[in-house]
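Quick note —
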Amino acid sequence: MIKKELDIETIIGLESEPKIHEALHHLSHHGSVDYLTMSEEDMKRKRLRATTGEGRECRISLARNQKLQNGSVLYMDDALAIVIRAKQAQWLSLEPASLADGIELGYFAGNMHWRVAFAGPVLKIALDGAPSSFKDRISHFLESGHVRIVANE
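Predicted structure written out below.
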């Protein structure tokens, strides 16, 4: 009988580890790998409840020294494995009107401790919350025309 509710208190390892990878490969041929898709914010937590793609309830309670990440294996036996999948981050792409505007925007994003990426002249901000809260914070850049939104990804 496959368990529908699991209490998880430790991370078994990462799917990239050779022995675990081999076991997961075998289980995947039998359709026995279930994934738990989590946001980066949830992966920072030590205690939470989450539901896998197959509807299994996971009650996670980890020690302080353990950290969830993409590929963490939370459960594995001969019939089932549960693996963490990181939810893809959404990005707000911004293009400054000038070099000076870009420096100011970058300085502002750094002071906000936002996770950013660069794509040529475009500054991409990871949306770890509601897009409107990020847009509200940069409204003075947008309203002045010093920065324009290129795309949301």
